[in-house]
């Protein structure tokens, strides 16, 4: 598992994004136990306190819950995971349209371009 | 809970030259702090004061509430910038020496790390490369169950792969209540494992912050900020 942390954003928010991604993409399944803070920190080569902070935030959001003695688990609420997935998808789309806007494309033009790009792929 | 390190108006002069001109600094237990600054800014002087190798001209320095001395040396594990180990000794003999010298030295931990880094305990230091010697020294220092680790330029001579292993060793081996102070120029290599950074310049603390606060406020890495602040 690679973490690919970049250097200009806070580390803990990148850890949150990466963990969310792993939950959405099924690296972790609903109800799975996740590794300890130490193990995750060593794996990502980050400070354990920073990893702790990231997990605490996921816990506040309800994506992860902890059981006093046995560790942390992924939520079993599949709807919640789906919501996070949708939310991330919308963020990506918004970002994409913004970038296309910077290139000078209006929304309708962008959509047309997407359609023709997809058709091009199908014809390959 | 008291601070592991507390400096108040700490001043150190070498003859006419002022190395530290009024350092105020507090370091909390359980934190990994990067001590960063250009050459000659006073980093090593501060670390030597922490270890009782120098005494302040004025101001105070306290480790866990105590003035540096025999009691604080029991809880501080120090990696100096230059080695003090006997070049003719074998690694295993130095381990016996450390075990005898420090109550909190963990021999198993030392042997475990040596084998991970493919260092033969029967080798003599003088037969080793500069980087391997540095690894041995760091292993000895990190094998102590200390409350404060002071690492002066710990990874400078070590190859990038071993550097990763060493950084992982540091974060997975120190206990949660222990603190680490690392002085280094290799900021981008260690940035991700730090809680806090302290910028030192001209014998003064120029900035103390958490790594994520810098990234959040400045939108750049500590390494990039350092290059900007200390631009020549």
Automatic annotation (TrEMBL), chain A:
InterPro entries: Tscrpt_reg_HTH_GntR (IPR000524), WH-like_DNA-bd_sf (IPR036388), WH_DNA-bd_sf (IPR036390). Gene3D superfamilies: Winged helix-like DNA-binding domain superfamily/Winged helix DNA-binding domain. It holds the Pfam family GntR. PROSITE patterns: HTH_GNTR. Residues 9-77 form the HTH gntR-type domain. One of its GO terms (molecular function) is DNA binding. The keyword tRNA-binding does not apply. Keywords: DNA-binding, Transcription, Transcription regulation. This is GntR family transcriptional regulator. It comes from Candidatus Galacturonatibacter soehngenii.
TrEMBL record, chain B:
Gene3D superfamilies: P-loop containing nucleotide triphosphate hydrolases. InterPro entries: AAA+_ATPase (IPR003593), ABC_transporter-like_ATP-bd (IPR003439), ABC_Transporter_VariousFunc (IPR051782), P-loop_NTPase (IPR027417). The keyword Transport applies. Keywords: ATP-binding, Nucleotide-binding, Transport. PROSITE patterns: ABC_TRANSPORTER_2 (PS50893). It comes from the Bacteria. The keyword Transport applies. GO terms for molecular function: ATP binding; ATP hydrolysis activity. Residues 5-227 form the ABC transporter domain. This is ABC transporter ATP-binding protein. It comes from Candidatus Galacturonatibacter soehngenii. The lineage of its organism: Bacteria, Bacillati, Bacillota, Clostridia, Lachnospirales.
